[in-house]
């Protein structure tokens, strides 16, 4: 499974970024499996990271409030600092924690992904289309990664 994650990252970042890709793949694989209270499928976390940050551990949103691989919002969904979130392991651990919270609150994966992206299990208003696109993109990527894993075994 770790090889599938690494290949997905390298497809996005390119072959010049092997060292960073290995670091990110290790963080995704290890931290999502160690998530509390329930482990998150590493392929799901890979899909989220790909959509949220394009696998760039230094990614930042337009206003600087969401940082790193899983893009948690500083001061709202996380207590970690921007500096702490630039560490791939810290960031993926925090993203998995947030996703676990949203799964418990919303009950289904699509609703949890919507809440992960926008705070609400049922997106409304101007953000609804953007949130639906995020959910669609994550689920599509997740399905593709699952298929890749099945074909590789």
Describe the protein's architecture and organization.
With about 150 residues, the protein is an all-alpha fold. It contains seven helices and no strands. The protein has a single domain (about 1-150), classed as Lysozyme, CATH 1.10.530.10. About 65% of the residues lie in helices and about 0% in strands. The longest helix has 25 residues, at about 130-150. It is globular and about 40 Å long.
N-to-C SSE series? Answer: HHHHHHH
Q: Give me the number of helical elements.
A: 7
**Average pLDDT over all residues:** 94
Backbone shape? globular
Structural class: mainly alpha
CATH level 1 name: Mainly Alpha
The proportion of residues in beta strands is under 5%
Q: What is CATH's topology name? A: Lysozyme
The number of domains is 1
Q: What Rg do the Cα atoms give?
A: 14 Å
Roughly how many Å apart are the termini?
Answer: 10 Å
Helix amount, in percent? 55-70%
What key attributes describe this structure?
mainly alpha; Lysozyme
Explain briefly what this protein structure is.
This protein has helices at residues 2-13, 18-33, 42-53, 82-85, 88-106, 109-118, 128-152. With 153 residues, it is mainly alpha-helical. The chain is globular.
Outline the fold blueprint.
Layout: H1 2-13, H2 18-33, H3 42-53, H4 82-85, H5 88-106, H6 109-118, H7 128-152
Helix pairs in contact: 1-2, 1-3, 2-3, 2-5, 3-7, 5-6, 6-7
């Amino acid at each position: 499974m770790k090889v599938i994650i690494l290949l997905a990252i390298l497809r996005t970042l390119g072959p010049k970024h092997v060292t960073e890709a290995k670091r990110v793949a290790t963080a995704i694989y290890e931290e999502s499996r160690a998530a509390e209270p329930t482990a998150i499928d590493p392929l799901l976390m890979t899909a989220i990271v790909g959509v949220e940050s394009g696998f760039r551990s230094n990614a930042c949103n337009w206003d600087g409030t969401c940082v790193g691989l899983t893009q948690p919002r500083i001061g709202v969904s996380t207590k970690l600092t921007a500096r702490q979130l630039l560490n791939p392991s810290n960031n993926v651990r925090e993203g998995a924690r947030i996703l676990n919270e949203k799964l418990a609150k919303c009950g289904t994966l699509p609703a949890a992904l919507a809440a992960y992206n926008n705070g609400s299990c049922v997106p409304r208003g101007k953000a609804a289309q953007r949130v639906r696109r995020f959910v669609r993109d994550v689920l599509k990527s997740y399905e593709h990664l699952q298929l890749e894993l099945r074909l590789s075994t």
